[in-house]
Amino acid sequence: MTLRLFDTATRTVRDFVPLVPGEVGVYLCGATVQAPPHIGHLRSGIAFDVLVRWLRRTGHRVTLVRNVTDIDDKILAKAADAGEPWWAWAMANERAFTAAYDALGVLPPSYEPRATGHVPAMVELMQTLVDSGHAYVTDPGDVWFDVRSYGEYGSLTNQRVDDMVAAPEGGSEDTRKRDPRDFALWKAPRPGEPATASWDTPFGRGRPGWHLECSAMAQRYLGDTFDIHGGGLDLRFPHHENEQAQSRAAGHGFARYWLHNGWVTQGGAKMSKSLGNGLLVDAVLAQTRPVVLRYAMTAVQYRSMLEWTEDTLRESEATWERLAGFVERAAEQVGPADADEVARVELPAAFVEAMDDDLNVPAALAVVHEWLRAGNSALSRGEADVVRATMVQLRAMLDVLGLDPSSSTWTTGAGDQRHAHALEAVVAAELEARAQARAARDFATSDAIRDRLAAAGIVVEDSAAGARWTLAQTRADT
Ligand SMILES: Nc1ncnc2c1ncn2[C@@H]1O[C@H](COP(=O)(O)OP(=O)(O)OP(=O)(O)O)[C@@H](O)[C@H]1O
Ligand SMILES: [Zn+2]
């Protein structure tokens, strides 16, 4: 059986044959860390986590590179509005993304390069493009890719240059460009931008364009030619078209397969910050266990749109309870299986077939549910051997999807923020009641509330801004 993947470049399903047998290099465009993530931002991380897990399970050594774009117009603008250094703004949001990936059981990438740490590699690539006549400098710091110089421009998205829209950086009215579609490799600082947000290059001082970052970082960690490049559907054009043009014009083979995941949508529209319909990961995790969110985001095929409704999490929770409930009861009856056994067991043929069919997770889950039904019958009949075998199979299949109920990712409660949010709400109500009692000079009540909180290990401090609370330090800390 061979893995077949839908390659966006050829618009066909192709057998996946890695460049080096048994080894796979994957580059996934990561976050531009300008804000904390909404669940749409996590879709690609989860989709490609399933790909990586499947490749590993089928015997491949996978190198996954997922970058962090930590310098960008929006980061600079938002940090300036907030009165913070741009790098502090980027770092805080990068941490929020990392916490979200961890909470949802997305395995860490092999390498997670930040754009700002790879300026020399970008300058080198840009130099190659300038030297070979594929890029040109207008004013110091402004370097453009010359789309007419590269005959294959448009091949990834099957477009003719004449039909394309102007590149957003310096639009069609920018007379310095040779063609309105030419896009920025390097951007001179704009008035008012901090000096720390630009770097010296042979072409003047400036900062990288987004497309150049990914080309340079992919080459740095995966080499001139690598297997799979992924990202959200909206990145195909211009981002991926431009990445490919830069790298191939520089003489590199670049990505051999292109995979794009669908969006999380609401009412058919892409969930997005600017539309105001972005559900922040943190807000969802205040009310839902991470595994339930992971299940909901994994259960669809990666290329499908995932339409988010009020019922999505409820349905996901009910299904998850049935799966995790079986594994728990089975382990009670026959004892737990060890991780090695789960990692080595031969998977059901129908499951393998579904995963090899362009990661058809819904079909793979249908197999999981057949096994679940059989497992539940075996449980009620007390057939220990069948229960055990089914438990091992279910855990193995679910592990491929990042959803093994016995994985420590889910059993330790890490990333589950519901307790913290519940505590926050209860203490806030207590403090409000105390404030009212004090306002009414009912000190007996206000003191009783304070004592009750202290007995629960909560220390209240009064300040001009109102009451603040912290958890009491343990004896060992004092
Ligand atoms: N709803 C979504 N579903 C899947 N992927 C998404 C979604 N929204 C954003 N992404 C991905 O996240 C990355 C950043 O996208 P983008 O900046 O468009 O998101 P956003 O911050 O919500 O959008 P906007 O700038 O319109 O508010 C891209 O890789 C994109 O593919
Ligand atoms: Zn990219």
From TrEMBL:
<feature type="binding site">
    <location>
        <position position="239"/>
    </location>
    <ligand>
        <name>Zn(2+)</name>
    </ligand>
</feature>
<comment type="similarity">
    <text>Belongs to the class-I aminoacyl-tRNA synthetase family.</text>
</comment>
<dbReference type="InterPro" id="IPR009080">
    <property type="entry name" value="tRNAsynth_Ia_anticodon-bd"/>
</dbReference>
<keyword id="KW-0547">Nucleotide-binding</keyword>
<keyword id="KW-0436">Ligase</keyword>
<dbReference type="GO" id="GO:0004817">
    <property type="term" value="F:cysteine-tRNA ligase activity"/>
</dbReference>
<dbReference type="InterPro" id="IPR056411">
    <property type="entry name" value="CysS_C"/>
</dbReference>
<keyword id="KW-0030">Aminoacyl-tRNA synthetase</keyword>
<keyword id="KW-0862">Zinc</keyword>
<keyword id="KW-0963">Cytoplasm</keyword>
<dbReference type="GO" id="GO:0005829">
    <property type="term" value="C:cytosol"/>
</dbReference>
<dbReference type="InterPro" id="IPR014729">
    <property type="entry name" value="Rossmann-like_a/b/a_fold"/>
</dbReference>
<dbReference type="GO" id="GO:0005524">
    <property type="term" value="F:ATP binding"/>
</dbReference>
<keyword id="KW-0648">Protein biosynthesis</keyword>
<feature type="binding site">
    <location>
        <position position="243"/>
    </location>
    <ligand>
        <name>Zn(2+)</name>
    </ligand>
</feature>
<dbReference type="InterPro" id="IPR015803">
    <property type="entry name" value="Cys-tRNA-ligase"/>
</dbReference>
<comment type="subunit">
    <text>Monomer.</text>
</comment>
<feature type="compositionally biased region" description="Basic and acidic residues">
    <location>
        <begin position="173"/>
        <end position="184"/>
    </location>
</feature>
<dbReference type="Pfam" id="PF23493">
    <property type="entry name" value="CysS_C"/>
</dbReference>
<feature type="region of interest" description="Disordered">
    <location>
        <begin position="166"/>
        <end position="202"/>
    </location>
</feature>
<protein>
    <recommendedName>
        <fullName>Cysteine--tRNA ligase</fullName>
        <ecNumber>6.1.1.16</ecNumber>
    </recommendedName>
</protein>
<feature type="binding site">
    <location>
        <position position="29"/>
    </location>
    <ligand>
        <name>Zn(2+)</name>
    </ligand>
</feature>
<feature type="short sequence motif" description="'KMSKS' region">
    <location>
        <begin position="270"/>
        <end position="274"/>
    </location>
</feature>
<dbReference type="Pfam" id="PF09190">
    <property type="entry name" value="DALR_2"/>
</dbReference>
<dbReference type="GO" id="GO:0008270">
    <property type="term" value="F:zinc ion binding"/>
</dbReference>
<feature type="binding site">
    <location>
        <position position="214"/>
    </location>
    <ligand>
        <name>Zn(2+)</name>
    </ligand>
</feature>
<dbReference type="GO" id="GO:0006423">
    <property type="term" value="P:cysteinyl-tRNA aminoacylation"/>
</dbReference>
<feature type="domain" description="Cysteinyl-tRNA synthetase class Ia DALR">
    <location>
        <begin position="350"/>
        <end position="409"/>
    </location>
</feature>
<dbReference type="InterPro" id="IPR024909">
    <property type="entry name" value="Cys-tRNA/MSH_ligase"/>
</dbReference>
<keyword id="KW-0067">ATP-binding</keyword>
<keyword id="KW-0479">Metal-binding</keyword>
<feature type="short sequence motif" description="'HIGH' region">
    <location>
        <begin position="31"/>
        <end position="41"/>
    </location>
</feature>
<dbReference type="InterPro" id="IPR015273">
    <property type="entry name" value="Cys-tRNA-synt_Ia_DALR"/>
</dbReference>
<dbReference type="InterPro" id="IPR032678">
    <property type="entry name" value="tRNA-synt_1_cat_dom"/>
</dbReference>
<feature type="binding site">
    <location>
        <position position="273"/>
    </location>
    <ligand>
        <name>ATP</name>
    </ligand>
</feature>
<dbReference type="Pfam" id="PF01406">
    <property type="entry name" value="tRNA-synt_1e"/>
</dbReference>
